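Tip: read the tokens left to right.
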């Protein structure tokens, strides 16, 4: 560990440790999109950079950062999360990526520091092996003193975590304070909601997924309202980055596309995904829609989703980024 655990508190009152299986499944299905995002952001970085992954969750994105850095000049990845169980899994995942990458001639290390290469931006110097050092910190992104706990970084990354914090604009200011001059701050927020079900399921009223997404939106409003000290942010993410003082602000998206019939992993993910929507949207759904969901999620039901061959996953992850002047 980079430092000692300080807290497992979360401002949104969500038990994120209990969602570990869902986060792992999402990382597996997001892998192609995450790899594309990591490669695109890595192109903006100097030799032997430091990358900080704030709210790293189960660590899926940082496995791709590690691979992108190892394919270039090496560097350092610092994992940060407020939930120790997730941080432990993130370390495990990145270490596993380290083992996988060794066969390709690159080496990622754990806590042991290794000298960085001195080659060009996209490759190590001749005769050296790119090394990626991995560290971990238990910390709260809403803590204004976070810049004092972490080194400055060439890339500060936060994926779908800022919207769970009381003051989103202040949190982006904290991210910006951690970035080096000319460093990049990048947020994965928004995008296109995932779709996974056909419009007519053969039970219940057609269009269930549209109503589930509407119910999820109502739950999200309530979640934000339930955060102690929540501050509205009535503008988009690019405006928020500009207000934090970042320059060259822009966005790009990566498609997540798993056509039917998909794999066993897709079925498991859809089950977790719909279970979460059923919990979040229960108060915003009709009795008929709740009954339809219950049938889809019941392994002994004739309508159990695990028996279907028309499940799919389609959506997009959007990244908003800017450079600290």
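Filled-in amino acids:
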């Amino acid at each position: 560990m980079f430092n000692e655990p300080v807290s497992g508190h979360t401002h949104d009152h969500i038990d994120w440790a209990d969602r570990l299986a869902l986060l792992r499944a999402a990382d597996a299905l997001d892998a192609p999109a995450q790899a594309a995002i990591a490669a695109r952001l890595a192109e903006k970085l100097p030799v032997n950079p430091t990358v900080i992954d704030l709210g790293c969750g189960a660590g899926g994105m940082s496995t791709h950062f590690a691979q992108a850095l190892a394919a270039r000049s090496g560097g350092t990845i610092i994992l940060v999360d407020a939930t120790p169980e997730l941080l432990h899994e993130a370390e495990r995942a990145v270490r596993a990526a380290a083992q996988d990458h060794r066969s390709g001639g690159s080496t990622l290390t754990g806590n042991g520091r290794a000298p960085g290469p001195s080659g060009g931006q996209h490759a190590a110097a001749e005769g050296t092996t790119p090394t990626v050092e991995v560290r971990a910190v238990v910390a709260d992104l809403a803590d204004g003193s976070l810049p004092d706990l972490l080194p400055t970084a060439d890339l500060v990354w936060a994926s779908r975590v800022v919207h769970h914090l009381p003051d989103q604009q202040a949190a982006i200011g904290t991210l910006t304070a951690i970035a080096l001059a000319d460093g990049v701050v990048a947020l994965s927020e928004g995008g296109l909601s995932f779709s996974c079900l056909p419009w007519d399921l053969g039970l219940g009223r057609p269009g269930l997924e549209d109503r589930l997404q509407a119910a999820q939106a109502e739950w999200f409003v309530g979640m934000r309202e339930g955060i102690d000290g929540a501050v509205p942010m009535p503008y988009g993410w690019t405006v928020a980055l500009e207000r934090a003082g970042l320059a060259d602000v822009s966005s790009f998206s990566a498609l997540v596309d798993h056509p039917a019939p998909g794999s066993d992993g897709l079925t498991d993910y859809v089950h977790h995904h719909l279970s979460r929507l059923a919990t979040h949207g229960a108060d915003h759904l009709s009795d008929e829609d709740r009954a339809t969901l219950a049938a889809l999620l019941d392994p002994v039901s004739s309508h159990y989703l695990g028996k279907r061959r028309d499940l799919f996953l389609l959506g997009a992850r959007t990244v908003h980024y800017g450079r600290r002047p």
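The radius of gyration is 20 Å. Residues 20-42 form the longest helix (23 residues).
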